Amino acid sequence: MSTHLDVAKVRADFPILEMRVHNKPLVYLDNANTTQKPRGVIERTREFYEAENANLHRATHYLSEVATRRYEEARIKVANFLNAPDSHQIIFTRGCTEGINLVAATWGRQNISEGDEILLSEMEHHSNIVPWQIVAKEKGAKIVVAPINDRGELLVEEWQKLLSPRTKIASIIHVSNALGTVNPVKELVGMAHANGTKILVDGAQSLPHLRVDLQDLDADFFTCSSHKIYGATGVGALYGKRELLEEMPPYQSGGDMISSVSWSNTTWNELPYKFEAGTPNMAGVTGFGAAIDWVESVGLDNIAAHEADLLAYATERIREVEGVRIIGEAKHKASVLSFVMEDTHPNDIGHLVDTQGVAIRTGHHCAEPLMRRFGVPATCRASFAAYNTREEVDIFINSLKFARDLLV
Ligand code: PLP
Fold first, then answer.
1. Is the CB of 127 under 6 A from ligand 1?
2. Residue 225 near ligand 1, beta carbon < 6 Å
3. Looking at residue 222, what is its pLDDT?
4. 128: number of CA atoms within 13 Å, CB side?
5. Which of 232, 261, 296 is the last residue of a domain?
6. Are 278 and 310 part of one and the same domain?
7. Could you tell me the pLDDT band of residue 260, with boundaries at 50, 70 and 90?
8. How far is Cα 154 from Cα 132, in angstroms, rounded to an integer?
9. Residue ranges of the alpha helices (H) in 278-318?
10. Residues 6 or more apart whose Cβ sits within 8 Å of residue 124
11. Residue 96: CB within 6 Å of ligand 1?
């Protein structure tokens, strides 16, 4: 399949890809874990510290105005990228994990009561399980788990049947980090709303691969991380519907999130600042904006087509390796190839392919219940990004054969 992506040009933007590991060229296939950063992001962060650094919103001096402007420009970039109705509904967080914790700890505590239900699925990441378990335990609510089939697809009819009058919120992974499955989130949002249920979409793994249109999707909350889409670590965004964000109590408190403080009464700042207590990762946020600029300059659709080609090629070639079983064979997948190899442990494979310069992830991928569902303790996972090539897939497959020859 030919794509409109000039991979050589893309690769030239990423200094780290020139590296050698164990005296071999680096083949970085751990992108679902975190992506590498293009020059534009690295330079933006450096420029912030070299020429713009000051604290936000708090001073009238020149640098503070520049820093505030840069920070707010990034918010507008994120809002536009996601087609959010208003940039004030984009809250900067430490990442997707913090976004989900924020919703569970504020909206959840305020709206979930004894006997209520929270609908999740078998393929959730721990960060979309544990915050809900905490609020469920505190309130005497119940976690309900929707099943998936052996290909790793959500059983949508079962999911719908599990929506009850007590289901206050459903929280669903958009693209599975461990399987690659793309969930039909728009359909799920419609079903949840028809039941009077709020819905959060965990977009950690969809943001880098699929066009997300928040106005079209109509989810109540959407969370994502900058580092999964070529941006800084420790930065993410939470989108929420205005009326919900307005009603929710603050998550953390302190500077910036207040309108006025007195000993007898403190009032909250307007959106989004009500949820942004303290000094944020300003350089990182501006880097998030630069990452979006980079993706837009290459074209998200071009990236998605290129990754689909790599995934199809790798899926075909991995079948040459004896004893490999793919975990996650959904019809609709993005960028992730998870597998186990009979008579070997994923960690041993991970170490051996690393000696060949190939970086993959091995482990439970923060999805222990999902691993149990498939009867495996862990998997190996290769995940693709804009800068990967078919030649790298070939090196990866050879490294797997090398590992197999030594282990079996
Ligand atoms: N949700 C999914 C599906 C993920 O893959 C991840 C990270 O791997 C997260 C949430 C958590 O993201 P972060 O660690 O950036 O907060």
1. yes
2. yes
3. 98
4. 34
5. 296
6. no
7. very high
8. 19
9. 282-298, 300-318
10. 171, 172, 173, 202, 367, 369, 370
11. yes
pLDDT at 339 over 80: yes
> Does 366 participate in catalysis according to the annotation?
yes
Which ligand 1 atom sits closest to the C-alpha of 233? 15
What distance in angstroms lies between residue 241's CA and the mean position of ligand 1's atoms?
21
Give the model's pLDDT for residue 181: 98
Domain that holds residue 356: 7-30+299-407
Query: Residue 95: CB within 6 Å of ligand 1?
Result: yes
Share of the chain above pLDDT 90, in %: 98
If pLDDT is split at 50, 70 and 90, which confidence band does 25 have? very high
Nearest ligand 1 atom to the CA of 96 is 16
Six-digit token pair at 99?
């976004």
For residues 225-252, give the mean pLDDT.
Answer: 98
Spacing, Cα 98 to ligand 1 middle (Å): 10
Predicted pLDDT of residue 58: 75
User: Does the residue 24 lie in any domain?
Assistant: yes
**CATH number, domain with residue 378:** 3.90.1150.10
Atom of ligand 1 nearest to the CA of 228: 15
Rounded mean pLDDT of the chain? 97
Q: Report the domain count for the chain.
A: 2
Ligand 1 atom with least separation from CA of 225: 15
**Confidence at residue 3, expressed as pLDDT on a 0 to 100 scale:** 62
Catalytic residue among 96, 224, 366, 380: 366
The partner residues of 131 in beta bridges, in order of sequence, read none
With residues binned 3-state (H G I as helix, E B as strand, rest as coil), the percentages for the chain, rounded to 5, are 45, 20, 40
Q: Whose CA is nearest to atom 12 of ligand 1?
A: 96
- pLDDT at residue 32 above 80? yes
